[in-house]
Amino acid sequence: MCDNDLVTKVGPFELIDVPPLSEPRLLLALQPWVDVGSVGTMALTFLEETFGGQPVGELTRPGYFYDFTRYRPTLFRREGKREISVPNTRLHHARDKDGRDWLLLHALEPHANGDEYTEGILDLCRHFKVSEYTLIGAMYAPVPHTRPPLASGGANDEAMLARLRDAGIRESHYEGPTTILASVTTEAEKLGMISSGVILQLPAYAQLERDYTGLYALLGYLEKLYGLGLKLDQLRAQSERQTEAINENVAEDARLKAWLTEMEAAYDAERSADGPATGTKLSPELESFLRDVEGRLD
């Protein structure tokens, strides 16, 4: 941010050049916890590029929340001069074709002072009078790349739950380790704010740095939820090319081919079942392989 710009402080954030907003919705992508394949991050970037989004805020002191030996700063050159980019949580604003305001938050999970970080996000929601808050992203799961990615989620509002179901997003009953940002959801209702999540399941054996099939699927779910009028044909072509490349790799691995057949059967059984996503029993060998994959990601 430039020294001459007028900066507004909101909790740990500094905001700049924010236009008047009307009941904005906030989409949050959280790295690295639920951003496998960079799907959440790429979805926000796609929306920014589509709707002409502009940066409007970031943490004033990112070092208060982040360990820079884990999130490394980056050196780069601009017009022959060496500069450094410091990891940060950054906020963008975009206005869609129907004039709806969107706040797009590229969040990095904090290493320290997580309660203050979470309260800072709630401060942003209060400041902008956010009407809806949605966490988007993806996690690895025992699912096949040969089927459309499934999404699960939840909401603190019955009407929003119905919208999720209508978009093909199944209700999640996950219990286990989570992020400190999960407390945003629990606090949202006190602010009169609708809170929800949309998390894709992506194949654990693929581990793509940029998963275009996941991105295509996530944007498709957001399109069903919000009617954004997104043009996704080019992205669908990228997804198809990526799937062909995975097919070639799987064809060379007899064990993975067998496991793929097993995952396809489990996927089809899960898809045909009524009610919330519950998971389907897999062979011990495949379960062991997937645990090993997850262990390497920790």
Walk me through what this model shows:
- With 298 residues, this protein is α/β, with parallel strands linked by helices.
- α2 (114-128) crosses α4 (182-188) and α5 runs antiparallel to α6.
- The chain starts with 6 loop residues before the first strand and ends with a helix.
- The mean pLDDT is 91.
- The protein has a single domain, classed as PAC-like subunit (Rossmann fold), CATH 3.40.50.
- It has a ten-stranded mixed β-sheet, sandwiched between helices. A two-stranded antiparallel ribbon has the order 5-6.
- Helices cover 37% and strands 24% of the residues.
Short description:
It contains 8 helices and 12 strands. The protein is of the alpha/beta class and 298 residues long. The protein has one domain (7-297): 3-Layer(aba) Sandwich (Rossmann fold).
Distance between the termini: 34 Å
Number of helices: 8
CATH top level label = Alpha Beta
Helix content class: 25-40%
- Class by alpha and beta content: alpha/beta
3D shape? globular
Strand order of the largest sheet: 1-2-4-7-8-3-9-12-10-11
Indicate the CATH architecture: 3-Layer(aba) Sandwich
The number of E-state strands comes to 12
Radius of gyration: 20 Å
CATH topology: Rossmann fold
Number of domains: 1
- CATH homologous superfamily assignment: PAC-like subunit
